[in-house]
Write a structure and sequence with these properties.
A five-stranded mixed β-sheet has the order 3-2-1-4-5. The longest helix is centred in the middle third of the chain and has 14 residues. By secondary structure, it is of the alpha/beta class. It starts with 17 loop residues before the first strand and ends in a 7-residue tail after the last helix. The protein is built from three helices and five strands, in the order E-E-E-H-E-H-E-H. The chain is globular, with a radius of gyration of 20 Å.
Length: 124
Amino acid sequence: MKPETTRNINDTPFSQHLYMAIELSNEKWKFWVHDRVWAGPRLRDLDARDLAGLVKEIRMAKERFGLPESAPVRSCYEAGRDGFWLHRYLQTQGVNNLIVDSASIEVNRRKRRAKTDRLDVGNC
């Protein structure tokens, strides 16, 4: 007889949050959601600025991960051409949003310099 392995929900730290990241561009938005516990991330493409589609995807993600409708959503995206209007909209939807400034992300300057040193400007 083989012993059966079971998963006890009490042994797993369970978070009642939905985590979301959005990559914004002019034509499409990439949308990732995850509950950090059970399954892999859910990845979807949305038409840019499709707010009804975004709200629908949040609702569907909560259903997929078995989260209650009232589960808090934590989100982040990089401020760029879309700026802060999306942040304000997400706040009206009850989403705890964080805006990332790409200039504040630490970059290894040596690698960056090595890349520019390889450019041969004389051939342009």
